[in-house]
Design brief:
With 214 residues, the chain is an alpha/beta fold. The protein contains nine helices and five strands; from the N terminus they run ααβααβαβααβαβα. Strands 2-1-3-4-5 form a five-stranded parallel sheet, sandwiched between helices. The N terminus is likely disordered.
């Protein structure tokens, strides 16, 4: 059999055996959900976590995405900063950055929290990823001065880095007992679905921007 014909047969077999992405390049958008227990899905099955529900919702809309769950329960912004570089090695196109709740619960210094978040944002941007910054609110028991200093960190950083801000990750969830677990702190599956619906328009805007830029 002539060698030219053999090459054609092998090429045809390769095209049939391999997915289109292998030949033409992977077009899947990678979203990194980077946070604490609210991202990880504390107390929930893995398929009900924020990352899993967001991925399903986007795929149901015809979006070619994968969402990585990089949530670690109990993580502070310092803990997140220490592990972020490893997560960025997977080259996400978009990072949903959700950290700060545990800093607030422990009454940690908002200035240090701001520095940690600022460093994480810079790492994400330097890695070529877009960022949605998810805001948090301080617990009321720390007093008004602490709360103001804490709450102001998120919009200030979003303005400084020209980021998309989702003002409060738990918007519409925390005051509804039907949307939280028995601990009164963490969203149940329905609560996570509420979070996904709230942040979804911003995620879609970021994905559209990424597609236009590609």
């Amino acid at each position: 059999m002539p060698s030219k014909l053999i090459r054609h047969i092998l090429m045809a077999a390769l095209l049939l055996a391999c997915p289109a992405g292998f030949v033409h390049g992977d077009t899947t958008m990678h979203i990194l959900a980077f946070g604490d227990s609210l991202t990880a899905g504390y107390g929930l099955p893995a398929d009900q976590s924020f990352a899993a529900q967001l991925e399903r919702r986007l795929r149901d809309m015809g979006r070619d995405v994968r969402v990585t769950n990089a949530g670690v329960s109990g993580d502070t912004t310092a803990g997140g900063l220490a592990r972020l570089a490893w997560s960025l090695e997977d080259k996400p196109h978009l990072v949903v950055l959700e950290l700060g709740a545990n800093d607030g619960l422990r009454g940690l210094d908002p200035v240090r929290m701001r520095d940690n978040l600022d460093a994480m944002i810079r790492q994400c941007l330097e890695a070529g990823a877009r960022v949605i910054l998810a805001g948090m609110r301080a617990p009321v028991n720390w007093g008004l001065e602490y709360r103001n200093r804490f709450d102001d960190v998120f919009p200030e950083l979003a303005d400084e880095h020209d980021l998309t801000l989702y003002p409060f990750f738990l918007e519409g969830v925390v005051r509804d007992p039907s949307l939280v677990l028995d601990d009164g702190l963490h969203p149940n599956a329905a609560g996570v679905a509420r979070i996904v619906e709230g942040i979804l328009p911003l995620v879609l805007e970021e994905l559209d921007a990424l597609e236009k830029a590609s």
